[in-house]
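Quick one, tokens below. Sequence please?
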């Protein structure tokens, strides 16, 4: 039996891939941590995991953030894998960025959160043209990304205050949808310009990593064309984000430049994602850093991890619940005529405990009309554990009020 927090994330991951709302995140289960894939020099070795310790998997020793930055002296691109709703993962990203900046590197920050068409938004933020509230609203944070701004706030403030360039890396969603449904050959010239000349296909190792995240009884247990389409969608994200990151660092004349890419861990681990797509075209050094929780999704301790999982592994504590609550639903959104209709309710989520059901139409939340998934994400981001929301819903054509207590699933 998986933990409630895992079931919530897994359902969200399934909905994301099916609805193309956001890239699939890697989940910290035992299967995905111990695969004998990746760098052959390390794929046969397991290394101990230490809470708040950073393991250099090539040398096997523990290092401080400053020592890690020193060992990246020759690195031009650093991929840092994240779990989007785990604050400890984002603190690892922040600490790494800070250590590299303090080491005298010219740090650029590449972002999965924004498609490359939104670069002006990030330029305006770093230039100080937005207040924080203005950036979240005018920069369409919840339109480009569904996760709470507070998870990323420290990083964005540090980048603005220190003039660190931020780069939009992701594919527009319509391009990913086209690649997933019709193949890469269906992409137009603009989308192709943000991809490597040759896209590395889904190898058996890649498929093994992809499958390891999901159990046989999970909703993503698919076969045939649908599964192949999911592989293409994931590869599209890998290739576009990797290629855009590489082009940005190549265009930077400063030899001290390093592109730090904040990206879902599923795009980083074992070098199977973005790194694999750009390695043939980049003659510099690519490094990876991925946090790993000391407890897996079923509550079992994680004592070791495969050495080929990442170049640096940072041990972080168990997370029982997300720091910031989420409702736990997916809406029809732009896919249908009723944007507020619920198409998925995560098990053990705030929504399921409040009695929301698939097919319900979420009309409003504390007086704010819910006209899109983006509006719902923006509004719900203001709630904290212990709050209560008053919703208006339509169920079977009948409008009614529904109280939604914002409470954790377990002590």
């Amino acid at each position: 039996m998986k933990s409630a927090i895992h079931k919530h994330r897994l359902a969200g991951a399934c909905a994301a891939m099916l609805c193309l709302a956001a890239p699939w995140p890697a989940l910290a289960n035992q299967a995905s941590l111990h695969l004998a894939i990746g760098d052959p020099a390390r794929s046969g070795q397991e290394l101990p995991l230490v809470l708040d310790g950073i393991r250099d998997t090539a040398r096997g020793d523990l290092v401080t953030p400053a020592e890690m930055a020193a060992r990246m002296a020759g690195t031009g691109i650093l991929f840092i894998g994240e779990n989007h709703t785990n604050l400890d993962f984002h603190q690892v990203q922040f600490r790494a960025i800070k250590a590299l900046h303090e080491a005298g590197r010219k740090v650029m920050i590449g972002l999965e959160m924004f498609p490359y068409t939104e670069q002006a938004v990030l330029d305006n933020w770093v230039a100080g043209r937005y207040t924080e509230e203005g950036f979240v609203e005018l920069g369409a944070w919840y339109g480009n990304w569904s996760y709470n701004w507070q998870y990323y706030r420290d990083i964005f403030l540090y980048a603005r205050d220190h003039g660190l360039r931020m780069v939009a890396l992701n594919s527009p969603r319509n391009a990913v949808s086209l690649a997933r449904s019709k193949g890469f050959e269906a992409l137009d010239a603009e989308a192709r310009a943000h991809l490597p000349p040759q896209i590395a296909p889904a190898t058996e190792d890649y498929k093994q990593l992809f499958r390891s995240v999901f159990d046989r009884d999970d909703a993503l247990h698919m076969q045939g064309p649908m599964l192949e389409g999911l592989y293409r969608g994931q590869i599209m994200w890998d290739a576009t984000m990797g290629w855009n990151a590489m082009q940005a660092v190549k265009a930077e004349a400063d030899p001290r430049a390093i592109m730090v890419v904040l990206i879902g861990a599923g795009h980083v681990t074992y070098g199977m994602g973005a790194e694999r797509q750009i390695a043939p075209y980049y003659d510099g050094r690519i490094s990876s850093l991925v946090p790993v929780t000391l407890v897996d999704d079923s509550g079992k301790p994680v004592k070791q991890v495969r050495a080929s999982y990442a170049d640096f592994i940072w041990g972080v504590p168990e997370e029982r619940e997300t720091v910031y609550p989420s409702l736990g639903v997916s809406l029809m959104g732009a896919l249908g005529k009723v944007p507020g209709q619920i198409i998925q309710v995560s098990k053990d989520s705030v929504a399921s405990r409040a009695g929301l059901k698939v097919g319900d139409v979420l009309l409003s939340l504390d007086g704010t009309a819910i006209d899109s998934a983006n509006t719902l994400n923006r509004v719900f981001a203001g709630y904290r554990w212990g709050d209560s929301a008053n919703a208006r819903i339509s169920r079977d054509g009948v409008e009614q009020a529904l109280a939604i207590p914002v409470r954790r699933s377990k002590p």
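The chain has two domains: 4-316, 329-405. Residues 329-405 form a domain with the Pdz3 Domain fold (CATH 2.30.42.10).
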